[in-house]
Amino acid sequence: MTLKEGCQTIEVAINGETRAVPGGLTVSGLLDWLGVDAQRIAVELNREIVRQPGWGATEVGPGAQLEIVQFVGGG
Fold this sequence. Notes:
The chain has one helix at residues 27-34; strands at 9-14, 17-22, 41-45, 48-50, 65-70. By secondary structure, the protein is mainly beta. It has a single domain, classed as Beta-grasp domain (Ubiquitin-like (UB roll)), CATH 3.10.20.
């Protein structure tokens, strides 16, 4: 995703990669901004698992470290 001009940004680490993202996003908002399908993923924020019901209320602050893991089925 691209950032809009004049948008306040913060730097966060997502799966080990430093990225500039809009400030003030929740976990849910960040996933939407990244275009991640939230159906089958797990999110860790600053080494703590964030359960899906809390995504909308959990803010992602400057310097946050996120791990976003997608579950893949197979046999």
